[in-house]
Write a structure and sequence with these properties.
heterodimer; A: 111 residues; mainly beta; seven-stranded mixed beta sheet; four-stranded antiparallel beta sheet; 11 strands; B: 111 residues; six-stranded mixed beta sheet; five-stranded antiparallel beta sheet
């Protein structure tokens, strides 16, 4: 298995633009998590899905953020409109038997 | 919000020495896990210890858990340069697979 695949690995955009981050979890994993990592706030859980259904989105910062999981092999995290404070590394992870398998992350810079 | 706090925040030791990192958490847990993150990469699962376990070993790793003190420690024996990374603890609670990460310990092994 190729592991969790995220794209893009790097994104630089201007304030106000829409950003879409993508994730392909490991086949057979039923739960998918989106985390955000910054120096100031560490690793924050944004949202997680189980069997494609959002279970806990209490970490989503505000209405500018939305996440979808239309099927078991694909999820998106969208920021619209983006702001400089959204600059961070966004990780997707899928859960095996209790442990998380992380992708390599998408580094977002909003100018 | 962070559930766990790692201590120390940063640790530098000579290659071959043992490294000990501690994690304290606030609320009752089901499992506690340790992860490693190399610079610019995603997190990698190291070891999981259940709340009814007190100690677990995996290769050069030894994890202890004291639920009465709400704390865990990770010991890496005979450290190597390749162990240079950040180490995070993560906890979940009964009936909830949401994993909350601590603040991390940055470990540097000096060759």
């Amino acid at each position: 298995d190729a592991g969790v695949i995220q794209s893009p690995r790097h994104e630089v955009t201007e304030m106000g633009q829409e950003v879409t981050l993508r994730c392909k979890p490991i086949s057979g994993h039923n739960s998918l998590f989106w985390y955000r990592q910054t120096m100031m706030r560490g690793l924050e859980l944004l949202i997680y899905f189980n069997n494609n259904v959002p279970i806990d989105d209490s970490g989503m910062p505000e209405d500018r953020f939305s996440a979808k999981m239309p099927n078991a092999s694909f999820s998106t995290l969208k920021i619209q409109p983006s702001e400089p404070r959204d600059s961070a590394v966004y990780f997707c992870a899928s859960m095996g038997t209790g442990e998380l398998f992380f992708g390599e992350g998408s580094r977002l810079t909003v100018l | 919000s962070q559930q766990g706090e790692e201590d120390p925040q940063a640790l530098s030791i000579q290659e071959g020495e043992n490294a000990t990192m501690n994690c304290s958490y606030k609320t009752s847990i089901n499992n506690l896990q340790w992860y490693r993150q190399n610079s610019g990469r995603g997190l990698v699962h190291l070891i999981l210890i259940r709340s009814n376990e007190r100690e677990k070993h995996s290769g050069r790793l030894r994890v202890t858990l004291d639920t009465s003190k709400k704390s865990s420690s990770l010991l890496i024996t005979a450290s190597r340069a390749a162990d240079t990374a950040s180490y995070f603890c993560a906890t979940d609670s009964f009936g909830n697979e949401k994993l909350t990460f601590g603040t991390g310990t940055r470990l540097t092994i000096i060759p």
